[in-house]
Amino acid sequence: MLEDNQGAARTPSPATPEEVTHLEQQKGISLPPELKALYRLSNCPSLFGGDFQLYPLDGTESSVARFTASFRRFRWIVPEELTIIGVNGNGDPFGLWQQAPLRGAVPIVQTGVWEDPLAPLASSIVPFLLGETAVFAHVSIDEPWRRHRVLQCIGLPRELSPHDPDDYDEWAIYQWAEPHFLRKRAPQGYPVSYTPDGLRSFLSQPRAQKLVIAIDGS
Fold it and tell me: Nearest 5°: phi and psi at 98?
């Protein structure tokens, strides 16, 4: 997919297994296997003209190892369970939410500085990457042949990829990426969000735990 997205992607050199292990030990976290595989292809891929950015593991202030603390210093709401790994084109950071009761499942959560800032976006990294890739391919890739190759690569059904890319249905794409749909839509059109305690409570509910764990495969 990175090759099919040439011209809309910046793909630095891969991370080494030692760099991945060092980050996990330094932060006391466990990266999902799929995210490790992505970092072994590119340590800090920037896709779709910067609309989707994963931070490098370490080496700069803007890295997975350091940026979570930076967001806290600037008074973003980043609870202990959340490790920031990237940012979207709107400047909204997202990260891994590692909560003990989830038994190894790692949802993707977006945060901000507003009231009730924490929005669960996906039950794991795979549906998150599928949904974001499909959405930003419509938004950022102008050449129809290149956009088609990216969407074909990830298996997006044709009915969700209209001839006019401006006519795509963002929420239908997210539901395709994750049929059980952890990401909920607020009346204003944004993802439903929570306070830190509210998100902990939501993810502690048996229904949410069953959903996250079942999809993550833990």
Answer: -110, 100
| Statement: the pTM of the whole predicted model exceeds 0.90 | no
Asked whether the beta carbons of 177 and 151 are under 8 A apart, the reply is no
Total number of domains constituting the chain: 1
Q: pLDDT, tens digit, for every residue of 17-55?
A: 999 999 999 888 889 999 999 898 888 777 777 778 889
Integer angstrom CA distances of residue 31 from 48, 52, 82, 105, 173: 24, 19, 12, 11, 25
Closest CA to 97 of 32, 2, 189, 172: 32
Residue 150's CATH number: 3.40.1580.10
Domain of 145 in residue numbering reads as: 9-216
Q: In what order do the strands lie in the sheet with 108-110?
A: 9-10, 46-47, 52-54, 82-88, 93-97, 108-110, 119-122
